[in-house]
Amino acid sequence: MTATIGKTTCPYCGVGCGVNLTIPNSSTESVPPVSGDLNHPANFGRLCVKGSSLAQTLQSDDRLLTPIVKGESVSWESAVGTVSDKIAQVVQDHGPDAFAFYLSGQILTEDYYVANKLAKGFIGTANVDTNSRLCMASAVVGYKRAFGSDTVPCNYEDLELCDLLILVGSNAAWTHPILYQRMAAAKKQRPNMKIVVIDPRETATCDIADLHLAIKPGSDAAIFSFLLQHSAQTGILDNDFIAQHTNGFNDALKQANESTPNLVSAAKFSGVSEQALMRLAHWWEQTEKTVTFYSQGVNQSSSGVDKCNAIINCHLATGRIGKEGTGPFSITGQPNAMGGREVGGLANQLAAHMDFATPGAQDLVQRFWQAPNMATENGLKAVDLFQAMEEGKVKVVWIMSTNPMVSLPDTAQVRRALEKCELVIVSDCKAHTDTTALADVLLPATGWSEKDGTVTNSERRISRQRGLLPAPGDAKHDWWAICEVAKKLGFQSAFSYKGVHDIFAEHAALSTFENNGKRDFDIGYFSQISKLEYDGLIPVQWPVPKGKPEGTKRMFEDGRFFTPDGRAKFVPIVPTLPINEPTSEWPFMLNTGRVRDQWHTMTRTGDAALLTKHTDQPYVEIHPKDARQLGIEDKTLVRLTSPYGEALLKAKVSRAISPGNVFAPIHWTQQFSNAAVVSNLIPQVVDPLSGQPESKHAQVKLEAVTEVFYGVIVSATPLEALDFTYWCYVPSKHGYHYEVVWPIGESVASIQSSFKISAQVTGEWLEYTNPRTQQIRLAYITDQKLTAAVYLHPTPKSISCDWLESKLAVNETLSELDRMAILVGTPANVEDKGTIVCSCFQVGSKQIEKAIAGGACSVEELGAKLKCGTNCGSCLPELKHFIPTITELSA
Ligand SMILES: Nc1nc2c(c(=O)[nH]1)N[C@H]1C(S)=C(S)[C@@H](COP(=O)(O)OP(=O)(O)OC[C@H]3O[C@@H](n4cnc5c(=O)[nH]c(N)nc54)[C@H](O)[C@@H]3O)O[C@H]1N2
Ligand SMILES: Nc1nc2c(c(=O)[nH]1)N[C@H]1C(S)=C(S)[C@@H](COP(=O)(O)OP(=O)(O)OC[C@H]3O[C@@H](n4cnc5c(=O)[nH]c(N)nc54)[C@H](O)[C@@H]3O)O[C@H]1N2
Ligand code: SF4
Ligand SMILES: [Mo]
Questions:
Q1: Distances (CA, A) of 491 to 84, 117, 371, 483, 852
Q2: What tens digit of pLDDT does each residue of 229-239 get?
Q3: 246 in a structural domain
Q4: pTM of the model
Q5: How many angstroms does the Cα of residue 307 sit away from the middle of ligand 1?
Q6: Centre of ligand 1 from the C-alpha of residue 122, in Å
Q7: Atom of ligand 1 nearest to the CA of 667
Q8: Are residues 343 and 286 in the same domain?
C-alpha cells in the first residue's frame, strides 16, 4: 500500500515553505517522511536543513501530556475551571487589566483570533501582547507611519526581479535560507544584479554580496538618510510620484540634509569608508529596480521605527514601490508573525488591521463581535507588561507558545515578574522549558503536524498547516483551550465554533465587515468558507476580497495608500546610535542573533541530533585582537557580564566581527547549559514608538575563565547532578553527551564521586591518567557494557563523540580492544570528520579539506565526491569558504 502524503507548511521561519509530510502506513516503510512541496510558491519543492529535519523532531521524550495544576496532573475540565475561576476573580476584584495574554508569532491565526477576541471583546482588556513585540513591532510602526497601514508591499519574486538588493540587518543565508537560495540563484543567472549587505558582522550572507558595509552597530539610519539626500542631488527623484502620492517630502529631505550633509559625515557616523558608501550610492542612483530587505539588525533597536522609515523614505522618493522588483521589504521571522498582525494580536492593535485610534473601529468591532466588554484603549506592550506584573498590577498571565524566560530582555526581571504573578498559565508542547518551570498551570498543546489552521508568510501568503498526526496524550489545540475557558467564563455563544474553519470564516468576515476598500486587510472571499474548502485551501496572498479569489501579488501598484488622504507619508529622520554605547567599565558592544541549524529556544530543533552538529555549544564571537588582549584563546570559556547578569560561553575567535564588538547566539537555555541565556545581559531598553527591545546592542565586559579543565562526558543515562563550572548538553543520537568545564586540581576520586550517574547503576571505573599531558580518561563499565566515559584535558580539545556514543548504544559485551579504544578516544579505523558542515549528509570539515587536497576545487565537485551541499543547500556559503581562491592556489 502506498503511504499517504499530507501537505502542510513548515513551522519555522517566515519564508513559509510548503512541506509534504509522508505518513508511512507501516513502520517498515522507508519513505522519506518530509519533503518540499513542489507546488508551493514559497519554495517550489526546496527545504532548508531545519525544514528537512522536521521528522526528527516529531518524537520527543519531553512532551507535556496532561494539564498540570500546581505540580499535579489534572483533567482538562479541572484545569479549565482553575483558569477561568481565577480570571473571573481578578477581573471582579481588580478590573480586566489584571489579566493578560502573552502570545506568539508561532500560534496559528485561528488560535490568535480567539485569544484576541476573548481579551479585547469579552474580558475587556487589550493586554494581548506577543513575542512579535521582540521581532517586528518596529517594522509594523514604520509601515503604518508611512502607508497608514501595516502593509508589506513586496513579494518573493521581487527579490529575483530586482537589479539591486540591499540586505540590511539580515543574515538570510541562515535565517531565511530558501529565500537566500532564490536570491543566490537570481544572482547566478544575472551576474549584473548587485547585492549589498549592511551588517556590522561578516556573515554567511555576505557570500553572495558585491559589497559588505560593516557599519558601526546601530548606525543604519545615516546610510539611508544619505541615500535620500544623494537621490535629490543626483536628480533621480520621482517628482511625479512625490507630488501625486505622498506628503512631507520637503521636511524629510531638509532633515536628511541636516543629519547627513555630505558623504564624509554619513560615512563617519556609520563607520564605513567613503568609497564603500559611495559605491552603494552610485548603484542606488543607477538602479531603478531596487529592493531593500530588512530584518532584526534594523528592528531590534531603540530607534528601529526611524530606521524603517529612513529606508521607506528612500523608496518613496524614487517611486521604487508598487512595481516589479522594487520596494522596502520587511521580512518576518516567525511562521505566523504576519497572521498575528492580521488578527490584531498586539496590545496596541484592535482587530483585523484596525487600531483603537482608527475612527469608528471600536464600535465596528464591538457590533461585529456583539461584544459585552470592549477594551477601549491600548494595552501593555511586552516589556511594560512584565514590569506591571512585577508591580503586582497584572495578576494572571496566560503565556502561549513562547519562552519569555529566554527571549525577553533582562530575564532576572522576567523571573521576578512571574514569581510575583498570582497565576501563571503556560500553554506549551514541552514539559520542561525555562518558562514552564515558573508556571502554576501547564496546558498541553498540540504542535506542528498535529494542529490545524492557517499561517501567513512574509509575502502575505496564507497557507494551511494541517493536522496529519494524532495528538499525543491529552494535548489539545490552543484555540480549543481558549474557547473552553471563554465558555466557562460565560461566553458560550461567541466561542462555540463548529471547528477551526469556522473561526477562519469569522476572521475573514470581520476583515471585510464595512470595509469597502478602506482597510488593506480584506479576505472577505473566505467569509463563507466551508470545512471542505478550508481543508483544500491553496496558498494565496491577501488581500483576497470578495470577487478576487486569486488574491494580490503586489501592493500599492496604483500609488494609493491607506492614509486618510490616500497619500504615503515621509518621516523626517534624525539618525541616532544605541542607547547603551560601550564605556570603560563595559567596553564591549554585545550583538545577539541566530545560528544556522537552531530555532530559538531549541525546544524543537534541540530534538534533532543532526542539527546540533554544526554548532554544538553556545559561543561568543570575538575579534583576535580583543581576544589576545584579554588572554582568551579559541574555544576556551569566557565570562560575559553586563549590569543585568552574566553568561558563560565558549570563545569563537574570528575576524568576522570587528574589534570592540562581540556576538552571541540566542538559542541555549537552562535546559541545555548552565549559564548561556544571553537575554540575561540585555537591558529593557525599547524603541519609544514600537516598544521593541534593543536586543542587538548591549554593554558587556568579558574575562577569560582560567584554572579549569575542559571535558567531555557521554553517558547512557542523564546525569543526576551537574555541578560543573560550565556544562552544555549536546543532543545526540545515542545516550547523553555533555561538554563540561571543571575547576583545575580536582582529583580523579573527586571527579568520580561528583559524577553522579543514576543511583540504580553500579559498575567499575576504568582509568587512564597522563601526568605529562594532564589528560584524564575514565570509563564506567556496568555488566561489561559502557555506561559512561569522561575525558578531561587542560585545554579545549575537540573530540568526535559519534563513535563513543555509538558504543553506548551497543548492547553487547565490550571487547578488550574496545575498552582500550574507549580510553584512547577513537579507534584507529574510524575517521575523524571534524566539525560538521553539511548537516544533511553529516559531512565534516576534515573530510572536506581532504577532498580538496585530493583535487576537488569547486562546491560542485565537493558535492559530487561527498554529497555535501546537494540536498538542502544551507551549507553552500560555508562550503565556498573551503575552496581556495586563485591567489591562494597559486601562492
Ligand atoms: N536558523 C534560524 N532561522 C531563523 C530563526 C532562528 O531562530 N534560527 N528565527 C526566525 C526569526 S523569529 C527571526 S525574527 C529571523 C531573524 O532573522 P535575522 O534578522 O536575519 O537574524 P539575526 O541573527 O537575529 O540578525 C541579523 C543580523 O543583524 C545584524 N545586526 C546587529 N546589529 C546591527 C545593526 O546595528 N545594523 C545592521 N544593519 N545589522 C545589525 C547581526 O549581526 C545579524 O547578522 O530569523 C528567523 N529565522
Ligand atoms: N537577545 C535576543 N533576544 C531575542 C532575539 C534576539 O535576536 N536577541 N530575538 C527575538 C525574536 S525576533 C523572537 S521571535 C523571540 C523568540 O523567542 P521565543 O518565542 O521565546 O522562542 P521559542 O523557542 O520559539 O518559543 C516557543 C515556545 O512555544 C512552544 N510551542 C511550539 N509550538 C507550539 C504550539 O503550537 N502551541 C503552544 N502552546 N506552544 C508551542 C515551544 O515548545 C516553545 O517553548 O526571541 C526574541 N528574543
Ligand atoms: S526556509 Fe527552512 S525554516 Fe524557513 S520555512 Fe523554509 S524550510 Fe522552513
Ligand atoms: Mo522573530
A1: 11, 11, 10, 9, 67
A2: 999 999 999 99
A3: yes
A4: 0.95
A5: 15
A6: 37
A7: 7
A8: no
